Amino acid sequence: MEDQREYITLVSAEGCRFVIDKQAASVSKMIKEMMEGCCAGPFGEFSEIPFPEIGASVLDLVCQYLAERNNRGVSMTEFKPLNKLDANKEEDRQTVIELLLAANYLDC
Q1: Distance CA 86, CA 8 (A)
Q2: pTM score of the predicted model
Q3: Is residue 37 scored above 80 in pLDDT?
Q4: What is the Cα–Cα distance from 16 to 54, expressed in whole angstroms?
């Protein structure tokens, strides 16, 4: 049986590419609007959306979250990679802040 899903590539500030199912990407209202409207090409399709303000490690987490939210209805508080971060470590605290800012920016 052939895979009928469509995919989109999200590009981080560093140029890292993350391929994600379009349905999962549509969990983000901003990405959904970009795919449907102003950023679409002449045929309504495009293959990449750049996010020069979001780092690769955070965009990776965002993609994981969008997939889990789409597949299982997981909320941000139930998102396991977020729960594994240690609030006592400065690096983890910074990751949480960046992830929450990205989620807010992407409206997801």
Answers
A1: 31
A2: 0.84
A3: no
A4: 10
